[in-house]
Amino acid sequence: MCGEFALALPEMKPARAQIDIDASKCTTPMACTKCLNVCPQMVFHVMVLKQEKFKETDINEPGAYVIIPLHRWKCTLCNLCVDNCPVDAIKITLRGKN
């Protein structure tokens, strides 16, 4: 009976996009979140770099958070994140075909 059902997982395709985020420009991503809000594929993820026990991390503190392209393989190269980044921190290039 166990072999009758298979778990359907999304197909992991190789990433077509090379997404580079300049952390020296994007210092307070939680205060901005424009790339998170505008991306139709939800490519980006916020990662906390500074955590203190029993203390909330300030979203305006530079370097406390970082944006990463966690789901890079979902990127459709629409460039909405690039166009909406107020500090010009995101660069997307097409990877060569393997």
Structure characterization notes:
- With 98 residues, the chain is of the alpha+beta class.
- It has one domain (23-94): Alpha-Beta Plaits.
- Helices cover 14% and strands 18% of the residues.
- It is built from 3 helices and 4 strands.
- The protein has helices at 29-32, 34-38, 80-84, and strands spanning 17-21, 45-48, 65-68, 90-94.
- The longest helix is centred in the middle third of the chain and has 5 residues, at 34-38.
- It is elongated, with a radius of gyration of 17 Å.
Biggest sheet strand order reads 1-4
Main sheet characteristics: 2 strands, antiparallel
Terminal-residue CA separation = 40 Å
Query: Order of helices and strands, N to C?
Result: EHHEEHE
Rounded to an integer in angstroms, the radius of gyration calculated over CA atoms is: 17 Å
Name the shape in a single word: elongated
Short description:
By secondary structure, the protein is an alpha+beta fold. Helix content is 14%, strand content 18%.
Notable features of this structure?
two-stranded antiparallel sheet; 3 helices; alpha+beta; Alpha-Beta Plaits; single chain; 98 residues; 18% strand; 14% helix
SSE layout and pairings?
Layout: E1 17-21, H1 29-32, H2 34-38, E2 45-48, E3 65-68, H3 80-84, E4 90-94
Antiparallel strand pairs: 1-4, 2-3
